[in-house]
Design brief:
Jelly Rolls, Endonuclease I-creI
Length: 341
């Protein structure tokens, strides 16, 4: 016979349940400030800017890639630049080898190598109503065709949902963070924020808008998650080397998945599952994305490897994520709608 639980024990259990729920819903803020920025790199030795529990929300502000010089050269006046960006630009002088001011890192309690961080992207806002796009000599997908620099300032009304690229040409605003990643293993030291890799990082995947979720393999204790490289809009490939570069504020919910090991990042949107391939050779990146999708179908959907490979051929779309970061990206998209029930 099962005995009764004493009222005091029941009250304690209820209190613990409420306390746990309250922790899961805690919201933190990482404002754009020098103490919250490491510029141009990921590194396991960077001191955490914030410590959170699994399930917490974090509001993160990020600064435009390469800082203010490019925006000023494109025609942004000093009066248009938020003071927080100016303070970071002046104070953070230890930079490189990459181009991105990264906000963080965020230490997630209990995260260990072999775990996965589920980074839910809940909301994205603009910190200023303009962005800049351009190309550098020797950069982009066809550098020999453009051996000089070009910049273009694009102003927009965030509430309109579009921007005018030139008279008669409008582009949809679709803000996302180009770089969301964790620290590499300690012995890797400081690595550039430019190419993506096993730490995830600079994917430049335009599908990772609000409402999407990125799954990031954990490589060091605490994960040490950092976020940056705000984009107002981008095409697949990011062929000139830039999107519409801007500064963003994002709201994220970070959930720790214990023991769910991934070799490479994955993602999902409200409509698609996404696997990714990252490699200097575009063909190999495509192979990696396909292999990852096969692994997903086998491990998560119960497919045989043969059926998974065949489904990839008839229902999976391969897209070139970006071709300009040295390490190229291909992502494979599988529509959720094909699964019944």
């Amino acid at each position: 016979m099962i005995g009764r639980t004493a009222p005091g024990v029941l009250a304690l259990m209820a209190l613990l349940t409420l306390s746990s729920a309250a922790r899961a819903q805690q919201t933190h803020e990482l404002r754009l400030a020098p103490e919250n920025i490491h510029w141009g790199y990921y590194d396991a030795r960077v001191r955490p800017a914030l410590r959170v529990q699994s399930g917490d929300r974090v509001i993160v502000e990020t600064m435009v890639a390469r800082g203010l010089e490019r925006m000023r050269m494109a025609g942004v006046t000093d009066a248009e630049i938020p003071q927080t960006l100016k303070v970071v630009e002046q104070a953070v002088t230890d930079r490189g080898p990459g181009a991105h001011p990264m906000t963080g890192p965020i230490y997630i309690a209990g995260a260990e190598p072999g775990d996965v961080l589920e980074v839910q992207i809940l909301n994205i806002e603009f910190l200023h109503p303009y962005g800049v796009t351009g190309f550098l000599p020797g950069g982009g997908t066809i550098p020999d065709d453009f051996p000089y620099a070009g910049l273009k300032l694009l102003r927009f009304d965030p509430g309109s949902g579009t921007l005018q690229f030139r008279p008669g040409v409008r582009v949809k605003l679709a803000p996302f963070f180009g770089s969301i990643g964790v620290a590499p293993p300690l012995l890797s030291g400081r690595i550039s924020s430019n190419p993506p890799g096993p730490h995830t990082g600079n994917l430049d995947n335009k599908d990772l808008v609000a409402g999407s979720t990125l799954y990031v393999p954990v490589l060091v204790p605490g994960g040490l998650l950092s976020i940056g490289d705000g984009h107002a809009a981008q095409g697949d490939g990011e062929v000139s080397g830039t999107a519409i570069e801007t500064s963003l504020r994002g709201t994220f919910r970070i959930v720790l998945q214990k023991g769910k090991a991934l070799r490479w990042p994955r993602a999902e949107t409200p409509t698609h599952f996404i696997t990714m391939g990252l490699h200097p050779d575009l063909d190999e990146a495509a192979r990696m994305a396909v292999r990852e999708m096969i692994d997903y179908l086998v491990s998560e959907r119960g497919f045989t490897r043969d059926d998974a490979y065949l489904l990839c051929s008839v229902a999976v779309d391969l897209r070139v994520t970006q071709t300009v970061d040295g390490t190229k990206g291909v992502h494979a998209l599988l529509a959720k709608a094909i699964f019944e029930g």
